[in-house]
Amino acid sequence: MGHSFLACHSTVKGFGRLAPDADAMLRDLDCNYQVLTEAVQTVMRRHGQGHAYEQLKGLARGANVTAAELQAFVSMLTIPEDDKRKLLELTPSAYIGYAQALAQDAYASIISTTQDEDA
């Protein structure tokens, strides 16, 4: 049990020393439009489009979806123009939902735990 605790503690301390390359991560993210298929699927379901998951699976499964491919798919949907416009304006880096808040909560929890252990 003690070894497990030390391993976890060392891992958390090691994460504190990491320096991610934010520009490289942003470039990678913006080259992967398949992350937006969740947003498209949600809007399709909201407007009663049948088989939303299956349609998008055909587009995105095992493939790197380009902006042009996703925009062509969205353009062909029979949904209100306002929703279509919003989907067409999305970029992978702009579609984060609750990710930022969840990451901040996780980080705060880790820091709190680490500070309690160091005290």
What does this structure look like?
Helix 3 packs antiparallel against helix 4. The protein has one domain (21-106): Ribonucleotide Reductase Protein R1, domain 1. It has helices at residues 2-15, 22-30, 37-46, 52-60, 67-75, 81-89, 99-118. The protein is elongated, with a radius of gyration of 20 Å. It is built from 7 helices and no strands. The protein is an all-alpha fold and 119 residues long. The model has no long low-confidence stretch (mean pLDDT 89).
Can you tell me the residue ranges where pLDDT is under 50 for at least 5 consecutive residues? none
State the end-to-end CA separation.
20 Å
Tell me, briefly, the overall form. Answer: elongated
**Helix tally?**
7
State the fourth-level CATH superfamily: Fumarase/aspartase (C-terminal domain)
Average pLDDT metric: 89
* The top level CATH class name: Mainly Alpha
Q: Note the main sheet.
A: none
Helix and strand pattern? HHHHHHH
CATH topology, what is it called? Ribonucleotide Reductase Protein R1, domain 1
Number of strands: 0
Summary?
The chain is an all-alpha fold. It has helices at 2-15, 22-30, 37-46, 52-60, 67-75, 81-89, 99-118. 67% of the residues lie in helices and 0% in strands.
